[in-house]
């Protein structure tokens, strides 16, 4: 028994180190000079750590503006997605209407369509609305999610029906029952949805490249593209810029990681 437990923890430790090593290498590389980064064999720790790469990163591209845009886009997308997801999940879990299950199954089938196939139609819609090079173009296509609705719907289904009928007998409307009872109970699932959605919005690159043309509307992931030129890539500077992009999401994940397991485990099964 002890041998199996030791092997299990050993494998988990190896897996954890394998996943953490790229982040570690990114940070230490951002503190190296150009000669140290290109040294063969590579050195693990910088001989003389320097923050010049971070200073250059902020001077090379308007990272302050990119950061503000990323925060605004992420915050608005997460807020709107949570609102639409809560309403949709409640409708598919508690309201009785004809064709409810068929409609939900149809929506779930749309998850089989790759995101890349939707880019053309989304771009045509944004172009028709004349929102190219506007922050709204980075927000509107990401205000709903079938996957998040699926998670929250199953979480709502795990709440006993007796609670719903008791609230209705006491005179609570569906709207009041949703926001006063169901939403507080579903906090782990909502935090999970918000965190996953924030990561997706924060790291969005392809869509940003397509619908933005000026630094005033671009976000942090596009800033990394600035360090890739025809003359080559300065990896120490690129790693400094990548650290600026990645660290906020890592901190956010570490702060709310306990909610992910709870939210996904309860939202993935019908209780």
Description:
The model is unreliable at 267-271 (pLDDT under 50). It is built from 13 helices and 2 strands. It has helices at 2-30, 34-37, 52-60, 63-93, 100-109, 115-128, 146-157, 161-169, 174-185, 187-202, 206-211, 220-225, 235-267; strands spanning 228-229, 232-233. It has a two-stranded antiparallel sheet with strand order 1-2. The protein is 70% helix and 1% strand. It is globular and about 70 Å long. The longest helix has 33 residues, at 235-267. Strand 1 (228-229) and strand 2 (232-233) form a beta hairpin. With 271 residues, the chain is mainly α.
Keywords:
single chain, 271 residues, mainly alpha, two-stranded antiparallel sheet, 13 helices, 2 strands, 70% helix, 1% strand, globular, disordered C terminus
In helices, the fraction of residues equals over 70%
- Give the overall shape: globular
- Write down the overall mean pLDDT: 83
Spatial sequence of strands, sheet with the most strands: 1-2
> How many strand elements?
2
Taking the sheet with the most strands, its summary is: 2 strands, antiparallel
Can you count the helices?
13
Radius of gyration: 23 Å
Low-confidence stretches: 267-271
Structural class category: mainly alpha
Distance between the termini: 33 Å
Element-by-element helix/strand order:
HHHHHHHHHHHHEEH
Proportion of residues in β-strands = under 5%
